[in-house]
Amino acid sequence: METFIERIDKISLLSPESKNAFLHAWEEWSVPKDHFLVRENAVAHHLFYIKNGVARIYYFKNGKEITEWIALDNQFFFSIISFFKQTPSKLIVQTIEPAKVMGIHHDKLMTLCDQHHDIERWFRKAISGSLILSQHRMDSIQFETAQQRYEKLLANNPSIIQRVPLSYIASFLGITQETLSRIRSQY
Amino acid sequence: METFIERIDKISLLSPESKNAFLHAWEEWSVPKDHFLVRENAVAHHLFYIKNGVARIYYFKNGKEITEWIALDNQFFFSIISFFKQTPSKLIVQTIEPAKVMGIHHDKLMTLCDQHHDIERWFRKAISGSLILSQHRMDSIQFETAQQRYEKLLANNPSIIQRVPLSYIASFLGITQETLSRIRSQY
DNA sequence: CGCCGAGTTGAACTGAATCAAGAAACGTGG
DNA sequence: CCACGTTTCTTGATTCAGTTCAACTCGGCG
User: B181: which nucleotide lies closest, measuring CA to C1'?
Assistant: First the structure.
């Protein structure tokens, strides 16, 4: 299994000193199911990494939950707009399984970016990766059918079906629960 | 009118030396209407800034043109995935009006990012901005109706209607030309 | 046992796409 | 400056993927 350090190195290599400073800046929490990492209308102070477990990012739109992201083991995730702008947002970040979560505080990360050029580079590359992901997701939502999106999810992430309620997955795919149910019944 | 330097400063301030090195790294071209800045299946070597004129980013999907972005005066724009990965892509970047365009070569920018911490920071912040934009656009495509998207475009960018053919705008909004025409006829 | 939340199924509806003609605007050569 | 062809835009009829609303099934658990 991939470790946190391997995951960091994969994005961009750091000097030993930077790496040391960087790793010490992360906190680690063991949290139960349904634990809030960021509450509604709060500022997202942390960039997260989920070591194991599942978390999701969602919000309420006309009284309905919209799941914007689901993060499984060994993924970085954060409430993008709130974290960058350091302003409150509707987005809620919550675990949906007991989880081991790492987090680095925004201010701490900014300080480290100022002090260590290679951490700044690391962060720049991490964000580039998010931007690429975001573009792919947009393309998927705009041009793929519900069925295609579901199949892609299955292919890339088979375990998600066992671990995440159908309603969250549907919303994450940008469709209703009923539609997802109908798609699944075809198999 | 906003200058190139003001636009750079707005993203993140640079030291005088860095700014000098940075500004000298940009090339400037005066190009006619319909000039290719990046051709199909080519690698996007440049990050662009359009001083005046209009450019668009598009590609062919099942024989049809899909307009992914339209850049008007004083905007940065680039073929995101191709530029970051430095791999060929279907995306074509082309002017649709005579334009004054600035561009910085990928390798040059990477070198400057290595040499100047504050240029690295500048780039990081620029990308964060793109990521925020990308998130907003995704939200818009997923939840807003064609009408709402059109009205928002009108509000944010009234001049675009005079300067860009309807078919490009429709595709940029993620709808067909016919639908856009029907929306417009309601006024 | 009976309830309760998660998932399924059915029928009607809808926003937008598609396909197919027309109408307007545009520019190029006579 | 007009005629002609081409491109751009509009209008109409039909179709479709997915939503909505409502009822129903199933498995677990107090």
Answer: D10
Low-confidence ranges of chain A (pLDDT < 70): none
Neighbours of A5 (CB within 10 A): 12
For residue B138, what is the nearest residue in chain A, using CA coordinates?
A138
Assess A30–B contact: CB distance below 8 Å, yes or no.
no
Tell me, which fold does domain A2-182 have in CATH?
A: Jelly Rolls (2.60.120)
Residues of chain B with pLDDT under 50: none
Domain map (residue ranges) of chain A: 2-182
**CB proximity B141 to A under 8 Å:** yes
Which nucleotides of strand D lie within 7 A of protein CB?
8-13, 17-22
Model-level pTM?
A: 0.94
Are A113 and B130 an interchain contact pair (Cβ–Cβ within 8 Å)?
Answer: no
